[in-house]
């Protein structure tokens, strides 16, 4: 198999199903060697077997992305098996949905571990490898591709923990892009909208995202999202970094982040009683944020 990611090596977390599996198949189709990471070894093996049966290259990795030391094994396995590592796709995720007033500590911690820490661990080890390569004079064209969410970009009722983690991932991506470019590393994030086990856990969403039975375009198919990630991971994708993309169906867009407004400057310290007039001016001039999902 050959394509725009020929001879490139990618680790994809949470690739035993859903979006991760779709990404794995697309990367393999475009010539990449794929490390299919998932804590469900049997699910990961199915994806690997499918890729190999189609002429691609793939191996299973079961590193726990929330364990920093174990995450190093994913990077080591990629290099041992394929001779290099060029791309990390941080895709793995879970949901623990709850209204904020009912959210407990365990539900908060689980989301932060899988999403925020999970986006850190393998990427950290990969960056150490890429930085060493760059300092040794080896050309580096590396990619970090993170997975954020519309929930993280604008909030989502009943998902305070998930929204906070996904917002953190968006900010992490901007920092990675700003700091790591000197080593030949780009960092981008994608907010996908697709039919997966997570998105269809709610009956209304499952109905909305159901595959059409008339043979028409399957708008919510997860493999609609994957080509964007593959392009970002390619050599051509090196010109793009520090962007947050949204992808669903046949649509790709860039999420425009926080921007400072002109503001109101008194030129001196404000008194609390004066803030009301300043606030009226600020609110009259602002461009309101998109509505929180579910409101």
Q: Could you provide a short overview of the structure?
A:
With 295 residues, this protein is an alpha/beta fold. It has 9 helices and 8 strands. The N and C termini lie far apart (46 Å).
Architecture blueprint of SSEs:
Layout: E1 9-12, H1 18-29, E2 33-37, H2 41-53, E3 57-61, H3 68-82, E4 87-89, H4 105-135, E5 142-147, H5 150-154, H6 160-180, E6 185-193, H7 203-208, H8 226-233, E7 244-248, E8 251-254, H9 275-285
Notes on the structure:
This protein is an alpha/beta fold. It has a single domain, classed as Rossmann fold, CATH 3.40.50.720. It has nine helices and eight strands. It has helices spanning 18-29, 41-53, 68-82, 105-135, 150-154, 160-180, 203-208, 226-233, 275-285, and strands at 9-12, 33-37, 57-61, 87-89, 142-147, 185-193, 244-248, 251-254. An eight-stranded mixed β-sheet has the order 3-2-1-4-5-6-7-8, with helices on both faces. Helix 4 links the parallel strand 4 and strand 5 (142-147). Helix 1 (18-29) packs across helix 8 (226-233), helix 3 (68-82) crosses helix 4 (105-135) and helix 4 (105-135) packs parallel to helix 6. The longest helix is centred in the middle third of the chain and has 31 residues, at 105-135. The radius of gyration is 21 Å and the shape is globular. The relative contact order is 0.13.
């Amino acid at each position: 198999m050959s394509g725009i990611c020929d001879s490139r090596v990618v680790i994809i977390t949470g690739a035993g199903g859903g979006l991760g599996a779709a990404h794995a198949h697309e990367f393999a189709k475009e010539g990449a060697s794929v490390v299919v990471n998932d804590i469900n070894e049997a699910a990961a093996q199915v994806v690997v077997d499918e890729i190999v049966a189609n002429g691609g290259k793939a191996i299973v990795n079961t590193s726990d992305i929330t364990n920093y030391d174990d995450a190093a094994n994913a990077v080591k396995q990629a290099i041992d098996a394929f001779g290099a590592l060029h791309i990390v796709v941080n895709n793995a995720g879970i949901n623990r949905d709850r209204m904020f007033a009912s959210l407990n500590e365990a539900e908060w911690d689980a989301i932060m571990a899988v999403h925020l820490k999970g986006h850190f661990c393998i990427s950290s080890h990969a960056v150490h490898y890429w930085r060493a390569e760059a300092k040794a004079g080896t050309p580096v064209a590396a990619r970090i591709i993170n997975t954020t969410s519309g929930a993280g970009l604008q909030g989502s009722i009943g998902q305070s923990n998930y929204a906070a983690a996904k917002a953190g991932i968006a900010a992490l991506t901007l920092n990675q892009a700003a700091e790591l470019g000197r080593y030949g590393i780009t960092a981008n994030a994608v907010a996908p909208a697709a039919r997966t086990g997570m998105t269809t856990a709610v009956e209304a969403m499952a109905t909305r995202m159901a595959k059409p039975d008339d043979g028409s375009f399957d708008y919510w198919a997860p493999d609609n999202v994957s080509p964007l990630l593959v392009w970002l991971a390619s050599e051509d994708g090196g010109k793009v970094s520090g962007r947050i993309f949204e992808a669903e169906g046949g649509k790709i867009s860039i999420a425009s982040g926080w921007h400072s407004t002109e503001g109101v400057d008194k030129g001196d310290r404000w008194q609390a009683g004066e803030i009301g007039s300043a606030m009226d001016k600020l609110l009259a001039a602002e461009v309101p944020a998109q509505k929180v999902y579910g409101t």
